[in-house]
User: What shape does this take?
Amino acid sequence: MNGIIVSIKYGVYVVNCDNVLYNTSPRGLVKFKDKIYVGDEVIINDDNYLIEAVLPRRSLLKRPPISNIDQILLIFSLKEPEFSYYLAFKYLTYASFNGVKASLVLTKADKSNEKEINEIKEVFNKIHVDTYVTSSKDHSGVEEIKALFKNKITVLIGQSGVGKSSLLNAIDESFLRDVGEYSLALGRGKHKTKEVILLPYQGGYIADTPGFSSLELEMSKLEIAQYFPSFEKDALECFYSNCLHISEKNCKIKARVDSGDIPPIAYKCYLELLEESERK
Ligand SMILES: Nc1nc2c(ncn2[C@@H]2O[C@H](COP(=O)(O)OP(=O)(O)OP(=O)(O)O)[C@@H](O)[C@H]2O)c(=O)[nH]1
Ligand SMILES: [Mg+2]
Ligand SMILES: [Zn+2]
Assistant: This one.
């Protein structure tokens, strides 16, 4: 029978086959070593519940480790931890490099104010990234989010403590996700969620994931120049095919920065990402 891996813990691969959960393990651990991800579609032997094969993947992320996702919701709190443009652009670049559509969800709206929220929304609207604003405390914005999941596999990605698990509980309280706390001393949460898990929702799945603390983009400068959000199309039309959009002649991106089409904060984050990239 066929199913989808919904969690992997202590060597147990939990597979959902037609809404029944089976505890399975890979046939021949060596054959599959490190190669099975949550999200994988697998074929299970009906007699011994061993995983016989992994079907080809539609997409794969290494961090967090998950396959076959249709979209990413990047979760950023407005406060605790403070919103970071830099991290938002970094993760948007990561998503676009991995070929998965990403939207932004700002959480803890109850701790912020309209001015700050509108400023952030304006930046991302300008570069055509869908941005949603929610509070899991008073449930504002949660109904709008619910419309995004139908028949899709969606992964929630964000720092520890931004409220990924809280948002899931606000979407459907039967998810019963454990919620951690924000640590003032650490400036983030305490990594409450420990594993990637797929939760069935509206004919698809939503994945809760552990909060990240750092991400290496593992992209070259040129790849960043091509995959940074909203650069994709125009980067190809720069005068030089290897244009890094700094001070090169006839650069389409720089022209868009100068005309105000690309927000200054986006370009600033882009330069920071370039500078950080170790690769040529
Ligand atoms: N005021 C307020 N607090 C929130 C909101 N969402 C989450 N929190 C709080 O933020 C803290 C962290 O929430 P979690 O849902 O555990 O965060 P997480 O992103 O799942 O964290 P990890 O599992 O560690 O990655 C908890 O104290 C929540 O009560 C919100 O919308 N408003
Ligand atoms: Mg969590
Ligand atoms: Zn350029």
